[in-house]
TrEMBL record:
InterPro entries: DUF222. This is DUF222 domain-containing protein. It comes from Gordonia amicalis. The lineage of its organism: Bacteria, Bacillati, Actinomycetota, Actinomycetes, Mycobacteriales. Residues 3-74 form the DUF222 domain. It comes from the Bacteria.
Length: 226
């Protein structure tokens, strides 16, 4: 049977607006996803708490199971390779033993696995120019994988990095909400007065082409047409 693997935000499902992301990186409008789900057998991924799905295999299996790959994709950053700036979609990644390599005694547990494209998965090692990885255990990046490029002998260590590409839509939405609040004000009952204020404070007479284009995009987002 055909399987469609899709990730959606709960708030978008409640609002019936926005987009969901498939394992191949395709965007699906939420209303279309809801229609598709009417005749589907769904899987539910729940984090932090245990479920009946066997996610922990220890040393029993080297390769991740289908259930583990589904849970990995459902993570906030799971739709692409975990290497910083890599955008290869989840449908084409391998499950990397990020905390400790399998050959060194690593475990095939979901908390120790991270998505990695074949290229970057084979660049992990202890030599200069290779990567050292680990799973973040606490803080705002808990559950994500850090990648650190090994430095040459005698050189200062390179910083650990996390792939921030999956955060772009959320950060843009937060920024857009902030801009709307600055334009309209938190207590505006109507948008008419805010639009007048907007015309008064934005002066594009000396703006560059790039600035004018950015202003046009932000205005279109802040004032969507009915």
């Amino acid at each position: 049977p055909i399987q469609v693997i899709v990730k959606a935000d709960l708030n978008d499902l409640i609002r019936e607006a926005g987009f969901a992301t498939t394992a191949t990186g395709t965007l699906i409008p939420i209303p279309d996803l809801i229609d598709m789900a009417a005749d589907a057998q769904p899987w539910l991924a729940v984090f932090k708490d245990a479920t009946a799905v066997p996610l922990y295999f220890g040393r029993g299996k080297r390769l991740a199971t289908r259930e583990q790959r589904l849970v990995s994709f459902a993570r906030p950053d799971g739709e692409v390779c975990s290497t910083p700036d890599c955008d290869l979609s989840a449908a084409h990644v391998e499950m990397h033993h990020a905390q400790l390599d399998w050959g060194l005694g690593g475990l095939t547990d979901i908390t120790d696995l991270a998505p990695a494209c074949p290229k970057h998965n084979r660049m992990v090692g202890d030599q200069p120019g290779q990567y050292t990885t680990r799973m973040v255990r606490e803080g705002p990046d808990e559950g994500r994988c850090t990648w650190q490029l090994n430095a040459e002998p005698g050189a200062p260590p390179n910083p650990e990095r996390v792939n921030r590409r999956p955060d772009i839509p959320r950060r843009f939405a937060e920024h857009l909400e902030q801009v709307r609040t600055e334009i309209h004000g938190p207590d505006e009952a109507s948008g008419d007065q805010s639009r007048l204020q907007l015309r008064q404070i934005i002066d594009l007479r000396n703006a560059s082409d790039a600035e004018a284009t950015l202003a046009s995009i932000m205005l279109a987002a802040a004032y969507p047409r009915a």
